[in-house]
Automatic annotation (TrEMBL):
Residue ranges occupied by any G-patch domain in the UniProt entry: 1-36
UniProt GO MF annotations: nucleic acid binding
Biased composition annotated in UniProt, kind: Acidic residues: 100-125
Gene Ontology CC annotation, any one: kinetochore
Highest rank taxon of the organism: Eukaryota
Stretches with biased composition (Basic and acidic residues): 20-45, 89-99
InterPro entries given in the database record: G_patch_dom, GPATCH11
Native source species: Prunus dulcis (Almond)
Region (Disordered): 1-45, 88-141
Protein name: G-patch domain-containing protein
Pfam families cross-referenced by the UniProt entry: G-patch
Taxonomic path: Eukaryota, Viridiplantae, Streptophyta, Embryophyta, Tracheophyta
Amino acid sequence: MGYTPGSALGKEGSGQAEPVKIDIRRSRAGIGREDPHKEKRKREEIRTWAERRNEQVMMEEFGSRKKSQWRSRRVVVNFKKAQAALDQLENKEVVPPEKNEEEEEEGGGEEEEEEEEEITEEYESMEALLTHCPGADEDDH
């Protein structure tokens, strides 16, 4: 009734061929305690994962902040354009916005005229407007 090397365990010999190995621990740490190098490596992995996650969250926040800043600037620009158009419709004198020297030197007048023609395009009827206009917002266009 003992163990014979090479034979399987159990009554009928159908069990494990090797018994459970004994792990002799050289350190005086408890059973649940791991090797200090393994513990340090695990802590380092957790720290790097947390740093990567924090960096990713910060990048997303930065992107959303920049998008909202850009949108708010576009709202201000669109408001000023609409206000100028309203003043013109009310036959008030419109003061054109001051241009920088760089903008005057570029001289992209033809492109601006074509863009203005596209922007101020008028439709013949309400039906044509509803069928051909992509949407009311700038994002739709």
